[in-house]
TrEMBL record:
It comes from Pseudomonas luteola. The keyword Metal-binding does not apply. It catalyses: (R)-pantoate + NADP(+) = 2-dehydropantoate + NADPH + H(+). Residues 3-150 form the Ketopantoate reductase N-terminal domain. Residues 176-292 form the Ketopantoate reductase C-terminal domain. GO terms for molecular function: 2-dehydropantoate 2-reductase activity; NADP binding. This is 2-dehydropantoate 2-reductase. Catalyzes the NADPH-dependent reduction of ketopantoate into pantoic acid.
Length: 304
């Protein structure tokens, strides 16, 4: 059974390379013929793990190929996921399994609506990877990925063990929405502040007051959206992540530094949208959102 990888960037490439070298059939799907030609000219995907560099000549195609898709990993950014999936939707067989690796919340629902006959599995990942150049991926840190299906929480896919054997650390979660909300709350408390203060995660220890105010509001939001069990200890959880990732540059700061669009709409944007829906006024988060938007505008970056 073949995997197709839609969005062979940092994380998608990391998954694809490990599947390929474990002997699991896998094909990359590039957006268009130009991108496919560039990939072929590069000779494959390069992956650096520690000091080890390897080149993996994975087979690749464009969405226009007609062969059916049974298992799809969507590894685009959250803002690209819906359009990317729409381009291959007609190739998905009924009951196809589609894993959505997007960070934040909001993009998954749009994809689910696009492909009602597929089974969408949501993912929340703490793995780390970045692209040194096109088709050249660096594994930046070890982590693991939670997978789950809110519609069928007890239906564990048969291929889960295969992924672990391929060195892709995954675990099934019957509470994947809780995992996604927890990560969203942590990312909302950390990522925008690192952008506004232009600092590594560890330097946020100097802004304990701001973090406390934000985590109190995020805790109230978690309560409102039905994940109140995650609210107690949120501040401690955020501080623990700050310490554990003290030398990291957050993904949002990396995006801004490289002039790339951020996933703000699926993090702070989604948090505030849900707060409004539940009649919650979250002043500190709103102010943070405004400051972040001003910052993005100043840097000529999209604010959504
Ligand atoms: P990335 O930008 O490195 O890769 C995304 C890839 O998708 C790019 O190669 C892009 O060209 C491709 N793409 C965009 N539109 C496409 C389309 N229509 N068809 C085919 N390909 C298309 O992004 P990433 O860092 O791998 O992140 C992917 C998602 O995973 C994000 O939501 C991110 O937040 C999440 N995530 C990433 C990491 C990480 O360490 N990189 C960790 C945890 C979560
Ligand atoms: O997930 C992260 C991110 O940068 O997006 C944290 C946990 C903040 C680590 O950098």
């Amino acid at each position: 059974m073949s995997w197709h990888i839609l969005g062979a960037g940092s994380l998608g490439g990391l998954w694809a390379a490990r599947l390929f070298r474990a002997g699991i059939p896998v094909r990359l799907i590039f957006k268009d013929r130009l991108r496919l030609a560039q990939y072929r000219a590069a000779g494959g995907l390069s992956l650096r793990e520690g000091k080890q560099d390897s080149l993996y000549p994975l087979p690749a195609e464009t969405p226009q190929e007609t062969s059916p898709i049974r298992r799809l990993l969507v590894a685009c950014k959250a803002y690209d996921a819906e359009d990317a999936v729409a381009a291959v939707a007609s190739r998905l067989i009924p009951g196809a399994e589609v894993v959505l690796l997007q960070n934040g919340i909001g993009s998954q629902e749009r994809v689910v609506e696009r492909i009602p006959r597929a089974r969408c599995i949501l993912a929340s990942s703490t793995e780390g990877a970045f692209r040194e150049s096109d088709f050249s991926i660096v594994q930046a840190g070890k982590g693991h990925t939670w997978l789950g299906d809110p519609a069928h929480p007890d239906h564990v896919p048969e291929w889960l063990d295969e992924l672990n054997e391929a060195d892709i650390p995954v675990q099934w979660s019957i509470e994947i929405m809780g995992q996604l909300w927890r990560k969203l709350a942590i990312n909302c408390a950390i990522n925008p502040l690192t952008v506004l203060h232009k600092c590594r995660n560890g330097e946020l220890n100097a802004y304990a007051g701001e973090i406390k105010a934000l985590t109190l509001e995020l805790g109230a939001l978690l309560e409102a959206v039905g994940h109140g069990n995650l609210a107690p200890g949120l501040q401690e959880a955020v501080l623990a992540v700050i310490d554990a990732t003290a030398d990291n540059t957050s993904s949002m700061l990396q995006d801004v530094t490289h002039g790339r669009r951020t996933e703000i709409s699926f993090l702070l944007g989604h948090a505030l949208q849900e707060a409004q829906r539940h009649g919650l006024k979250l002043g500190a988060l709103e102010q943070l959102h405004r400051h972040l938007i001003d910052h993005l505008e100043t840097h000529g970056l999209p604010v959504d």
